[in-house]
Amino acid sequence: MKYIAPSVLAADFGNLQSAVEMLNQSQADWIHVDVMDGVFVPNISFGMPVIKAIQQHAQKPLDVHLMITQPERYLSDFQKLGADRITVHYEACPHLHRTVQQIKELGCKAGVAINPHTSVNLLENILGDIDLVLIMSVNPGFGGQSFIENTYQKLSDLRQLMQRTSSSVLVEVDGGVSDQNATQLSQAGVNAFVAGSFVFKSVDSIATIAHLKQKVQV
Ligand code: DX5
Ligand code: ZN
After folding, report:
1. Which of 34, 41, 50, 178 could be disulfide-bonded to 46 (CB atoms 3.0-4.6 Å)?
2. Closest ligand 1 atom number to CA of residue 137
3. What is the residue-averaged pLDDT of the chain?
4. 172-192, pLDDT tens digit by residue?
5. Phi and psi of 108, rounded to 5°?
6. Helix H segments across 94-215?
7. Domain containing 83: what range?
8. Is 174 part of the annotated catalytic residue set?
9. Contact at 8 Å (CB) between 192 and 173?
10. Domain count across the chain
């Protein structure tokens, strides 16, 4: 199964309701919600009141990507705000196993994200406990950056690790995803595709999502 997860970070925040309603009408599978704290990443995006507004209109699962330090402090808040899956960063969690268990105890799917410089092999001892690995294909913090080509190598390493450990997790890629790389990423084993600028900066976002969805069916 292939999932398209448009990131509302690239939406017009003055018209957030219509952005979410557009996603409801589209072939998007998840709504990707990027939370940035200005500490883990050099940017601040939005917090609970904005997510509440998204959730009030959303008819699709919320895929919450926490680019924050000490995410364990807020996990239950995100769950109450309707998060379907919560992804935390490997680099932000010294007690990652505990954090993952907390996410699962809340009834959410648990994901772990890794930055471009972080080896997928560091996930060996957590892979069996999680539902999703998010490979950052840009440095987290901003939308609209260029896709890092080394992502393909990491996807190949992750497939090998999954085979070696007999684990099955969903593989999500985030950053610089467009119709130029979606097919190749899908062939490399990606299940979930986050796209911010490519969707929201296009003239017809609904058609762009449909186009991406078609590109990843390989
Ligand atoms: C980056 C965020 C991404 C971002 C992707 O830190 O995690 O989800 O919104 O934006 P694009 O698709 O524009 O690279
Ligand atoms: Zn993201």
Report:
1. 50
2. 14
3. 98
4. 999 999 999 999 999 999 999
5. -100, 160
6. 96-105, 151-164, 182-187, 197-200, 205-215
7. 3-215
8. yes
9. yes
10. 1
